[in-house]
Amino acid sequence: MSTVDTIRGRLDALPDVGLVVGFIGAIWAVMLVLAIAVGGANWANLAAGFVGSVTVLIGGYAILALALNLQWGYTGLFNIGIAGFMAVGAYTTAILTAPTDPAAGAVPGLGLPLWVGLIGGMVMAAIVGGLAALPALRLKADYLAIVTVAFSEIIRLIVNWDGLAEVSLFGVPVGTGGATGISFKSANDVASTLINGVGQPLVTAAEGVGVSGPNLANLTYGILLLLVVAASYWVLARITDSPFGRVLKAIREDETVTQSLGKDTRLFKIKTFMIGCALMGLAGVLFRGQAGYISPQQFRPTITFYVFAALIIGGSGSNTGSIVGAATFSGLLFYLPARLGENISLGGTRAPGNIVDAVAGFASLDPAPLLAYIISNVSTLRFVLIGVVLIYIIQNQPDGLLGHRNEPATSVSLDRPQSGSGGETDE
Amino acid sequence: MSEPEAAPRQETAVTSDAIESPLLEVDGLRKEFGGVVAVDGATFSVAEGSLTGLIGPNGAGKSTTFNCITGIHEPTGGRVTFDGQDITGLAPYTLANRGLVRTFQIARELSEMTVLENVMLAPGGQVGESVLRSVTPGLRSEVIKAEAAVRDRAWETLEFFEIDHLAHENAGNLSGGQRKLLEMARVLMTDPEMILLDEPLAGVNPTLEEKLLERIHELRREQGLTFLLVEHDMDVIMNNCEHIIVMHQGSVLAEGDAETITSDERVLEAYLGGDV
């Protein structure tokens, strides 16, 4: 029995909510153990920092993976422009909520409340997603992929362009800030206000054990993000467990057949694409714009491929799998190795400058140079690890951790109705 | 088998027989792929409530005709009328919603979905196909009610085709014959008036073939459905269809009941490869 089979067997036995909570709880426990092991007297503050950061990462990737799962996992729409749609959402929110009288050198915005900005960002991401999908949906799936990746890069280059850094729109000065980025009202401030207001006793208690204010705010923000994940999951589960979701699955399987059964598949595809892009836009603000500042650098195409990696690991086609995949990818493969590398030192061995020197140690049967090399370069080498895990999953468990589960798209139990209306047929 | 049929006119068999109440009329249908003319002015009609057979040697243009009627291909020329309305070039989903559905030559089950999901997909105008209704708390109760009704009907349909024991199985795990039954069950769930069957019996064992034909006759008898059947097995066509259309090289070669067709020399020549 392979390792993944064992893991899957255990995951299957749990109900979905328990599974997700347990999984994230386990990652928290790992972070706590690491903090206690390396933190010494400062362990509590370190633990709050680790757990807070990992929670923000899990939350951000979970929203993105859920959105991609709706588009790609359910409907087969190959969207490789995730970063671009995130940028549309984030920049729209930023422009709507940036103060009208910014600090010297910064770009002014419209100064609207944050909730208006968030809704505006989602709506704009949905509209741009719809526009991107419109010409491509008439063509084959591959063309949608090309169009989305092109859109994503065009968006990034537009927000990076100096010409739009600060312009006057109907006499109101607004802009993207160009390459220097834009500062705006961040959702993080909400978290800070929250804990400094109602959570004051919590802050005092946390400071008592040595947890710093910023770390506590970060942790609070992470938990708020998880609430957004829960809300997104609730909405998406209702969408997919319905006749609408059934049509999406059918489109993925065979679009011609779906059309022949009376479904206007183009309409379903555009709606789905817009909903997914709206969620990506939301993640763009809440995740990338956590600190109240965004720049074009944060919306490079690499993040698109991270989200695909997370969804493939978790199992495309499963909402629960999307979250588990996001947690595995961001927590265990992306965040954990970096923290391990920072905090583990190998006695007196100094890390060799290159891989040749590192491997040379084996000549004298001394693995220490290689280990030291790996540890000191772990933030680069973790991408090798991610690649290895992806190849292993695709070869051995192409459905991912949870994608194999049969999750029928319906809003009722599918058991045979008990009424004896029809005649008994066989058996 | 007792449909009143117009007297066969052997001399002018190419022109359409005067069918009393035609549900589907195809008039001068033409389809070109580049320089190849796949359908070249095919003209025929299908009587309401009939089981009409469409035969012809390979490459006669039967499947292309099917694809043109059901909106998979847009015809290059000609006219298709269904239930008195011009439906030429309409999209497949529009036709299905008007009651004209089809099955495919190679069964196209939605393999990663269960048999029950396949069948429950089909009914038209399901309230739960709206995102808003599926998500909004108050409106979802309506969706659930409609869904329960669809489920009950789906079970009944599966029982009718005797594949209810496979309901929770992924459709991809079904045997070839079971897939054909599933396709039939699926189109039936759309509440059709007319079903176009593209070689429904190809690769189906004799027992299953018997069962499928029985179901087709039962549906005609009890629900008044109309069938147009493409099939290579001559015996099946001759024994079951009261009206037969023979296509050859893209156009209709002969039309009439089994006797007329079997005694038509041009049909024999077309099948035996003589010059026509």
Radius of gyration of chain A: 24 Å
* Range of helix content of chain B: 25-40%
SS content category of chain A: mainly alpha
- Overall shape of chain A: globular
CATH superfamily of the largest domain in chain B: P-loop containing nucleotide triphosphate hydrolases
Rg of chain B over CA atoms, rounded to whole Å, is 20 Å
Largest sheet of chain B: 6 strands, mixed
Task: Calculate the mean pLDDT score of chain B and round it.
Answer: 87
Coarse morphology of chain B:
globular
Q: Sheet with the most strands of chain A?
A: 2 strands, antiparallel
Beta-strand portion of chain A reads under 5%
Helix percentage range of chain A: 55-70%
Structural class of chain B: alpha/beta
Which key terms come to mind for this protein?
heterodimer; A: mainly alpha; two-stranded antiparallel ribbon; 4 strands; 2% strand; globular; B: Rossmann fold; six-stranded mixed beta sheet; four-stranded antiparallel beta sheet; disordered N terminus
